[in-house]
Design brief:
This protein has helices at residues 3-18, 50-56, 60-66, 68-76, 92-103, 107-119, 128-137, 142-148, 152-167, 190-207; strands spanning 175-178, 182-185. With 228 residues, the protein is mainly α. The longest helix has 18 residues, at 190-207. It starts with a helix and ends in a 21-residue tail after the last helix.
Length: 228
């Protein structure tokens, strides 16, 4: 539900596409609730313009004006933000779905689909039927999704991530950590991410050099089943 997280994702992906060793980079998403005070069973279905307008005591038009820069940033990143459609909801169960997806190697697919569902399609994350549909769309089973949305185990994974973020000093998102050494805060331009990738991977590679063995020749079987 953080617009800069979606924009930051695109900027990071742009940097990764330029990074020569991108095949060696593994991305792991972590949960962070932007506004945990939003009720889980919120009755009013307000959009992203109306919600802050009510909280700050400003007009709908003023709120829409405040979001123009974000919409422009999104457009420059190739994204179509529709804040007039985006429904404010508690995101905790959506994070449960992401945690399930991570166990199946689908963490990035879940993030991408949820971002688009929220910012462009106006999907309500407080609706379990919506989350079920999204989960099945990316390849998760109905039984696994049903279990995850009520599971204490997946709730604990979400809470553990949020606690870890607090422990390392995260005060806002997006927040990108590279090899647990370097961080980029905010939706920075791609060149910032590329610099972080080059520095962190360069140091990691130096500390973990490739080891080439010189085996004695003998009879072997290859991965394609050829035994000679």
């Amino acid at each position: 539900m953080c617009p800069f997280c979606y924009i930051g994702k695109r900027h990071y992906e742009s940097a990764l596409s330029q990074f020569e060793d991108g095949d060696h980079v593994e991305i792991e998403w972590h949960s962070y609730q932007l506004d945990p005070t939003i009720p889980k069973n919120i009755s009013s279905k307000e959009n992203v313009y109306q919600w802050p307008a009510d909280k700050k005591g400003i007009s709908y038009e003023q709120s829409a004006k405040m979001h123009e820069r974000v919409i422009e940033m999104a457009k420059n990143a190739g994204l179509d933000f529709r804040f007039d459609k985006a429904i404010v909801a508690n995101s905790f169960d959506a994070h449960r779905l992401i945690q399930l997806a991570k166990t199946k190697g689908l963490g990035d697919a879940a993030e991408e689909r949820l971002f688009r569902a929220y910012f462009t399609e106006g999907k309500d994350f407080g609706d379990h039927d919506i989350l079920m549909s999204i989960g099945k769309e990316i390849g998760l089973s109905e039984d696994d999704i049903k279990s995850a949305l009520v599971s204490d185990a997946y709730a604990e994974k979400v809470e553990r991530d949020i606690k870890e973020a607090s422990q390392i000093g995260v005060q806002g998102v997006p927040f990108f950590v590279f090899d647990r050494k370097y961080a980029v805060s905010g939706a920075q331009p791609p060149e910032y991410f590329l610099q972080a990738l080059n520095q962190s991977f360069g140091e990691w590679k130096k500390a973990n050099p490739d080891t080439e063995l010189a085996p004695a020749e003998g009879a072997v079987c290859s991965p394609d089943g050829d035994c000679t």
